[in-house]
Amino acid sequence: RRERQRFVDKNGRCNVQHGNLGGESSRYLSDFFTTLVDLKWRWNLLIFLLTYTVAWLVMASMWWGIAYLRGDLQQAHGDSYSPCVANVYNFPSAFLFFVETEATIGYGHRYITERCPEGIVLFLFQSLLGSVVDAFLIGCMFIKMSQPKKRAETLMFSRAAVISQRDAKLCLMFRVGNLRNSHMVSAQIRCKLIKSRQTPEGEFLPLDQCELDVGFGTGADQLFLVSPLTICHEINSESPFFCLSQRSLRSEQFEIVVILEGIVETTGMTCQARTSYTEDEVLWGHRFLPVMSLEDGFFRVDYSQFHATFEVPTPPYSVKE
Questions:
Q1: What GO terms describe the biological role, i.e. biological process, of this protein (predicted)?
Q2: pLDDT values of the chain reduced to their tens digit, one per residue, 321 residues
Q3: Do residues 118 and 210 both lie within one domain?
């Protein structure tokens, strides 16, 4: 069967685009800081460079303007004449004075004198504006770099889900694992069934979301993720797969979205990893191969067998049947 459009990709990206926002697009500007953080890195770096470049050129032009209006550019800077800024003769020297002041380099060759009140006011304005720009842009870059999105790259999900019997009950199962030694604190897993349906009133719901129970009542959804775990959804009378059989699975069209959330131990930030399974990726009558083995003083995880499954005898009938 050809691959159909997914609601959530295997890597967790949601295939949803918002269009025809109209006047609602102004809401992005009202929360400009979050909008800036959500931009791609190339746009963040471009805004970062443009903001500093424009700010530096504008402020250097203001220093050059003060020197031009006072006539400092035409006067010889000696003991008999006190300019606003010493040793500023043209725009490049005004630009260098601004950069030295803004970056607190202070070579000592160019400095502001006390007989220039407009220069003192501009110096105070420059200090305040520079602090605001630095706090905004550097804070934005720091938050973007510290986002735990890349931590989700080391959280693995099995490529396929399986349906087989466990403890004499028909179950839908998939596997999760953590590649890092650092733990995911308070890790919790949730599952959503995305499937189109029609209500008794005739309303068509194209992407109806239904919760799959993976152990809410027993606490099995709270994971101690130090080794690969097999997550189990028991198919019973309350499950949306109550009428699912091996034959009907071939004609069904659904998507199971898996959401794993937890706190990164090293940073204390919340991380979320997502994946999905379509009906073509659900294997009836299969079970996952073991990946844990006991060696000399420790347990070893063989991730080469993480996605591997093998067939087991499983009734082809639904739980209802």
A1: potassium ion import across plasma membrane; regulation of monoatomic ion transmembrane transport
A2: 456 788 888 888 888 887 777 766 677 777 788 888 888 889 989 999 999 999 999 999 998 998 888 887 776 556 667 788 888 888 998 899 888 888 888 787 888 888 888 888 998 999 898 899 889 888 888 888 877 777 788 899 999 999 999 999 999 999 999 988 888 888 999 999 999 888 889 889 888 899 999 988 888 899 998 889 999 999 999 999 999 999 998 888 899 999 999 988 887 888 899 999 999 999 999 999 999 888 888 888 889 999 999 999 999 998 888
A3: no
Domain count across the chain: 2
Parent domain of 223: 148-309
Give the whole-angstrom CA distance, residue 158 versus residue 175: 5
Residue 17 forms part of a structural domain? no
Q: How far apart are CA 36 and CA 39, in angstroms?
A: 5
